[in-house]
């Protein structure tokens, strides 16, 4: 019967593993061997990974794939993608190759402003609070001088602090709503440190403000934290070409394709059930690059989906137009990314990815990630509106099914050949593998 434990965090790594094995596993030797099999043989490298998080017992691998041939604003990139799902890297690569001959991707950063808030409770008149805020605002800024000095030297720092009255939404609730420029850093730690200093100064100065009476001076700070909703940290990526230039092996009738593609995007703009899946397809590309470059994918996910719902209904992040014979397809998304800080200079494979991306600035990375999302969506919607998604997806997923059945290399060769001309479904693969095994040819 599993039991709880106190002081688990203080145990050594081996002790933690032994506790787990004794508590949950019947075949302890196999479980121990598995955990250890995933340790890196280089002890120093393993220690680095152990120390990224807490209570580490082993490593959890994800494949790192690459999608070549991305032409973005006249530069060619090979994009690193860390993802577990088959066909994503292939679809991105295929879309990159498709647009390579059609002018490539154009991307531009529209804005780079990050947001943080001090949430507080104030019991008194708003006029007095406003007067206090005006009075204390310069000190809020000056008290953070030691924190912001380096960021300001680089050209960033605190952009503004506003007082916001939210008391109609929640009794006595107000905010300091601050905006920041964090340049090549995602900025979470910088922003949170500034906010906590704002909170301290704000609370202390309120106690001294002579116009506050009674309860008014006793401001209660609820919390100070950055927002992962960054609608003023936006990037736009686009592809476009003449409709007739869409013609290719898979697109024999470009007019019909363009219309149907645009309809598919329009459906995702108005129908939330479709929009969620449409955007999931976009996030296949975005998350994979965000992960490969050591960025915070939870922060990106939360911010992107909030942006998709900004007009009150969850909607598509991409858009399509056909005007004067020109097919245009674009994405606008908020992305708070870093190319310094966080894991970016610690994880060896992140450093490798950054070098492959030609050492991007945060703005460069915003463009690359938005393009990965757009390309991914192009690949998925192109398949959906032509062959259907299963043909390509299952072609790539075939290897996973074969591995589930522990197919030998010889069996794989035969079955891959067989499925070049047959439809891949889970049951058709099971049937085929059973058949060749029963024939006794390979085992
Ligand atoms: C899967 C493909 C690319 C096959 O497409 P294909 O036409 O069979 O590929 P091909 O063999 O003719 O190769 C053409 C190019 O595709 C790429 N490619 C092709 N195969 C590979 C491979 N093995 N490894 C790496 N790259 C590959 C590669 O760029 C290659 O060029 P080359 O390298 O030969 O010069 C195509 O059918 C496709 O793009 N399908 C869409 C798949 C997709 O979107 N998958 C995402 C997962 S499904 C999902 O989660 C999202 C979804 C669909 O629900 C979202 C939504 O609903 O919107
Ligand atoms: N809600 C959220 O999203 C939260 C996220 N986090 C985590 O915070 C981390 C990111 O925080 P950061 O403050 O970005 O990282 P960080 O704490 O590593 O700081 C990066 C620092 O790099 C320095 N720097 C050097 N060159 C710079 C340049 N060119 N531009 C800008 N800064 C430069 C700055 O001093 C900057 O503060 C991520 O690991 C994230 O997962 C932490 C708390 C909350």
Automatic annotation (TrEMBL):
Pathway: Metabolic intermediate metabolism; (R)-mevalonate degradation; (S)-3-hydroxy-3-methylglutaryl-CoA from (R)-mevalonate: step 1/1. InterPro entries: HMG_CoA_Rdtase, HMG_CoA_Rdtase_bac-typ, HMG_CoA_Rdtase_cat_sf, HMG_CoA_Rdtase_NAD(P)-bd_sf, HMG_CoA_Rdtase_sub-bd_dom_sf. One of its GO terms (molecular function) is hydroxymethylglutaryl-CoA reductase (NADH) activity. GO terms for biological process: coenzyme A metabolic process. The keyword Transmembrane does not apply. CDD domains: HMG-CoA_reductase_classII. It comes from the Bacteria. Its EC number is 1.1.1.88. Belongs to the HMG-CoA reductase family. NCBIfam families: HMG_CoA_R_NAD. PANTHER family: 3-HYDROXY-3-METHYLGLUTARYL-COENZYME A REDUCTASE (PTHR10572). This is 3-hydroxy-3-methylglutaryl coenzyme A reductase. It comes from Winogradskyella psychrotolerans RS-3.
């Amino acid at each position: 019967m599993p039991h709880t434990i106190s002081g688990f965090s203080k145990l050594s790594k081996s002790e933690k593993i032994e506790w787990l094995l004794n508590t949950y596993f019947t075949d302890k030797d196999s479980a121990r061997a598995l955990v250890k099999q995933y340790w890196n043989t280089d002890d120093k490298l393993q220690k680095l990974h152990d120390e990224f998080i807490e209570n580490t017992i082993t490593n959890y691998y994800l494949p790192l794939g690459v999608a070549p041939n991305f032409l973005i604003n006249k530069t060619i990139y090979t994009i690193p993608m860390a993802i577990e799902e088959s066909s994503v890297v292939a679809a991105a690569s295929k879309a990159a190759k498709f647009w390579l001959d059609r002018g490539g991707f154009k991307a531009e950063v529209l804005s780079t402003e990050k947001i943080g808030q001090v949430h507080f409770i104030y019991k008194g008149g708003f006029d007095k609070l406003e007067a206090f805020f005006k009075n204390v605002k310069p000190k809020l800024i000056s008290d953070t001088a030691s924190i912001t000095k380096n960021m300001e030297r680089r050209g960033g720092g605190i952009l503004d602090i506003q007082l916001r009255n939210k008391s109609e939404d929640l009794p006595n609730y107000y905010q300091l709503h601050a905006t920041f420029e964090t340049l090549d850093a995602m900025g979470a730690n910088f922003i949170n440190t500034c906010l906590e200093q704002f909170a301290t100064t704000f609370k202390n100065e309120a106690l001294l403000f002579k116009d506050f009476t009674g309860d008014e001076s006793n401001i209660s700070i609820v919390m100070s934290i950055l927002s992962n909703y960054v609608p003023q940290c936006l990037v736009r990526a686009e592809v476009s070409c003449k409709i007739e230039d869409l013609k290719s092996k898979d697109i024999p009738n470009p007019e019909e394709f363009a219309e149907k593609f645009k309809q598919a995007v329009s459906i995702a703009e108005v129908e939330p059930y479709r929009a969620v899946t449409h955007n999931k397809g976009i996030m296949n590309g975005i998350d994979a690059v965000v992960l490969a470059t050591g960025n915070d994918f939870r922060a990106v996910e939360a911010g992107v989906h909030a942006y998709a719902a900004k007009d009150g209904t969850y909607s598509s992040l991409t858009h399509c137009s056909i005007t004067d014979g020109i097919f245009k397809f674009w994405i606008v998304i908020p992305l708070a990314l870093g190319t310094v800080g966080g894991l970016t200079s610690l994880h060896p494979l992140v450093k490798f990815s950054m070098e492959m991306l030609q050492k991007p600035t945060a703005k460069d990375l915003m463009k690359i990630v938005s393009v990965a999302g757009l390309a991914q969506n192009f690949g998925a919607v192109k398949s959906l509106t032509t062959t259907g998604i299963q043909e390509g997806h299952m072609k790539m997923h075939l290897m996973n099914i074969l591995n589930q059945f522990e197919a030998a290399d010889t069996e794989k060769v035969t079955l891959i050949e067989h499925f070049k001309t047959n439809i891949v479904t889970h049951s058709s693969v099971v049937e085929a593998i059973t058949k060749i095994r029963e024939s006794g040819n390979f085992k």
